[in-house]
Amino acid sequence: MPELDTLINYWKNTLFHQGYLMETTTQYLVAETIRQLDCLKTLYPDGRHAPDLPKPGGD
Q1: 3-state secondary structure at position 41
Q2: To pair with 39 at 20 to 30 A between CA atoms, which of 6, 29, 31, 55?
Q3: Looking at residue 42, what is its pLDDT?
Q4: Segments forming the whole domain that contains residue 14
Q5: How far, in Å, are 23, 37, 48 from residue 41 at the CA level?
């Protein structure tokens, strides 16, 4: 998801490094959301939004 990569990198590079994100609760929540999106991107690099549930008896 190149758009997601771009957004995450923008926020990380411009705000995290400048120390802005921990100043308010809203900014903290934005930072936490970005962190979780980054984790999802790492876990599901093919762009799935959530893990597929295992099917009973396998595929």
Answers
A1: helix
A2: 55
A3: 61
A4: 2-43
A5: 26, 6, 8
Read off the pLDDT of residues 5-45 as tens digits, 9 standing for 90 and up.
787 777 777 766 555 555 666 777 777 888 777 766 666 55
Task: Specify the number of domains making up the chain.
Answer: 1
* b/e per residue 26-58 (b: at least 16 CB within 10 A): eeeeebeebeebbebeeeeeeeeeeeeeeeeee
Region of 19 on the Ramachandran plot (φ > 0 left; ψ -120 to 50 alpha; else beta) = left
- The amino acid at residue 29 is L
Alpha-carbon distance 29 to 4, whole Å?
A: 17
The answer as to whether 53 is a domain residue is no
